[in-house]
């Protein structure tokens, strides 16, 4: 009987510890961003050299790689941009016109025209107007087509190449690329990143940026 009670007690302890560890992982650990410790200079060079647009604020930089119809990207912009901007965070948005996959188009002509324009002329106002317009209603008014324009097509390909180059560099740091991909620096200079597809990740971004 004593042995049975002992084993039952030990089993109860194991269950409690296991439940506590699972709760910590489920509500905290799994959502934490990764600290970038490898290839920081290469990652920073790719981000800084891309065609990002921003509101030109003077606070910390937050790079975000997105594509226009990405629902998680749209949600992050809608829910987090206002408070980030209020805190002076310079959100540096990098829009990508994704390449076709297995013959299936992943971008449209108007999307490619808009992304090329953003990369070339770096207009935050254009990005805001685009985001504020329903996707199906957007016609890229007044913008030059990227299709058939060698220079603008090269810009589109440069965006895609940036993503291709970032994927293995981020993976070495435990980050599996997904949209939106966020990269920022903490006050003590650490580079952080996450594929912030879920709301649960947002609080860590805000905390690191002092929001």
How would you describe the overall organization of this protein?
With 211 residues, this protein is of the alpha+beta class. It is 49% helix and 12% strand. It is built from seven helices and five strands, in the order αβαβαβαααββα. A five-stranded mixed sheet has the order 1-5-4-2-3. The longest helix is centred in the N-terminal third of the chain and has 26 residues. The relative contact order is 0.19. About 8% of the residues have low confidence.
Task: Name its key features.
49% helix, single chain, 211 residues, globular, 7 helices, five-stranded mixed sheet, alpha+beta, 5 strands
Furnish the topology, listing elements before pairings.
Layout: H1 2-27, E1 34-36, H2 40-48, E2 61-66, H3 71-86, E3 90-95, H4 109-121, H5 124-132, H6 150-171, E4 181-185, E5 191-195, H7 202-209
Parallel strand pairs: 2-3
Antiparallel strand pairs: 1-5, 2-4, 4-5
Produce a short descriptive summary.
By secondary structure, the protein is α+β, with helices and mostly antiparallel strands. The protein has helices spanning 2-27, 40-48, 71-86, 109-121, 124-132, 150-171, 202-209, and strands at 34-36, 61-66, 90-95, 181-185, 191-195. It has 7 helices and 5 strands.
């Amino acid at each position: 009987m004593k042995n049975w009670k002992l084993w039952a007690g030990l089993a109860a302890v194991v269950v409690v510890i296991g439940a506590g560890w699972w709760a910590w992982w489920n509500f905290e650990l799994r959502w934490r961003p990764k600290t970038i410790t490898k290839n920081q200079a290469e990652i920073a060079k790719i981000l800084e050299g891309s065609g990002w647009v921003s509101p030109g604020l003077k606070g910390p930089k937050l790079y975000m790689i997105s594509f226009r119809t990405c629902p998680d990207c749209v949600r992050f912009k809608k829910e987090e941009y206002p408070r980030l901007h209020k805190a002076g965070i310079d959100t540096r948005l990098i829009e990508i016109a994704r390449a076709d996959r297995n013959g299936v188009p992943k971008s449209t002509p108007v999307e490619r025209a808009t992304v090329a324009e953003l990369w070339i002329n770096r207009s935050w106002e254009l990005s805001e107007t685009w985001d504020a317009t329903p996707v199906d209603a957007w016609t890229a008014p007044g913008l030059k087509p990227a299709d058939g324009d060698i220079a603008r097509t090269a810009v589109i390909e440069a965006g895609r190449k940036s993503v291709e180059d970032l994927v293995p560099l981020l993976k070495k740091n435990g980050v599996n690329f997904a949209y939106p991909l966020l990269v920022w620096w903490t006050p003590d200079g650490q580079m952080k990143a996450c594929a912030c597809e879920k709301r649960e990740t947002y609080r860590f971004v805000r905390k690191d940026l002092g929001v």
